[in-house]
Description:
By secondary structure, the chain is an alpha/beta fold.
Amino acid sequence: xxxxxxxxxxxxxSNSILVNLVTLGGHVEIGDWAxxxxxxxxxxxxxxxxxxxxxxxxxxxxxxxxxxxxGRHPVQFSGINALGLQRRGFSDEDRLQIKRAYKxxxxxxxxxxxxxxxxxxxxxxxxxxxxxxxxIENSKRGII
Length: 144
């Protein structure tokens, strides 16, 4: 869309949407099907996961994991991108498992290391859960 700036060495996934005035610093990675709201800015080396949706006017300075809604100031977890996932054919069970994983990570008040271990032991592992865990464990800037 109009006036989007994509700096050097960025990777933009398939079917992603960058709304008007989005600005990406160098080396930003955006996963497939991610949506960035208008006038959002991403600091260099940040990552936005697959199927994530970022609210307008967001200032992104840490990684945003896959399948979630992120917004507010500072940017934080707002829930899973349930409608987007449903529209893209994710099953009710898949959406439930994603929601359970993020509830442990963001709502349990556990530190990230313990939350990840709890997700690994309490939620059946599949490609989606493994994608979430890999994304978080490989974050260099930390997650929101």
